[in-house]
Amino acid sequence: MIALVDVNSFYASCEQVFRPDLRGRPVAVLSNNDGCVIAVNREAKALGISMGRPAFENMTRMELHGVTVFSSNYPLYGDMSQRVMETLATLGASLEVYSIDEAFVEVPALERDLAGYGHRVRERVMRWTGLPVGVGIAETKALAKVANHVAKRERDRTRNVFVIADEAARAACLESFPVEEVWGIGGRIAARLADRGVRTAGDFTRLPDAWVRKELTVTGLRLKRELLGEPQSALELVAPAKQMIGTAKSFGETLEDEGLIREALAYYVAECGEKLRRQSSLAGHLTVYLETNRFRESDPQYVNQTCVRLPVPTNDTLELTRHAERGLSRIFRAGYRYKKVGVWLSGLVSPGAVQQDFFVEDPGIRRANVMGVMDAVNRKYGKAALRTAAAGFRRDQWKLRQERVSPCYTTRLGEVMRVTSDE
After folding, report:
1. Residue 179 and residue 195 in contact, taking contact as beta carbons nearer than 8 Å
2. What is the pLDDT of residue 261?
3. What residues are paired with 247 via a beta bridge?
4. In whole angstroms, what is the distance from residue 14 CA to residue 82 CA?
5. Residue 258 annotated among the catalytic residues of the structure
């Protein structure tokens, strides 16, 4: 049996851990640059706060109902996620980290009280991290996803734990489960299925195999078999290497100064370079992206990108920065107010798969040692404590707007919570 464990309203719950006064009260979290609402807890959702919509569209309603609003605090969320995963690893035979707030856990083979096991998982995660989780248990990943949905949707009945343990429970659950909520079926596929009269997951499992494979490929057929209780994939105990690494972030204010944009780009390149080295990959292509603020219709609009083929695949931040600056020079146009710059690294390969270029000087082991020292320093003293000169020291002029960010309670010594007493 497999348990899918996910944290309820993860970002909002992380904020509430360190603000117990907010328990039972509505909380919302904004995206990068405080642009959109990306997370709400149950209480905020009940007030009609819309996720994915610009913050200003929700602000009047949030202020009216006293919703506490936070800027996104990814260092905090990342650290809390790691704590959850480390806790889950003590409760199962194997663990697959599926996302920042979800994991598949292999239920111990000798476990007989599955619902009791689910509640023990909830209790330990709450005790060790302060975060509430939902648990769905079934024979396959897809069914565990369904069970988890039911656990959260009907939490007053299930107490956030739901088990699909036999054929009768599986059939009854799928007959009432909307097909568009099935793992891997989005709105476009759901619309095609609706044309064939498929409204529920149960309807989907009755489709002919030949039609499913033709219309939804072998992936759709595997999903159908998983919903029928036939496991199609084992847990991924080691996360696969990413095939693309990148970042694109908005500036706090629009920028016209190419120098500031270059500094922001170099900062983001360094982030990507560190991620490359962490998974022992080299990048063969680098794409630079630049755009103005499309929501400011009174401003002239411009968006462009360019791809640079690297002479030799590399994860050297200095080399990546040099090529990124070349790319920015190609697409930068004066006279525009830019809102976002981004960089993507693709064509990722392992170091052993690289053919050197006879006409390109290899930085060699000394440069690799420099990158290793940079990563070690930044892990110990914080992000960008050691940076390239190209990243500059003017980040305050282009960094994200985060007017409501909470302290990094668990990752910065200076922001650790202090408890005091008057006595």
Report:
1. no
2. 95
3. 343
4. 12
5. no
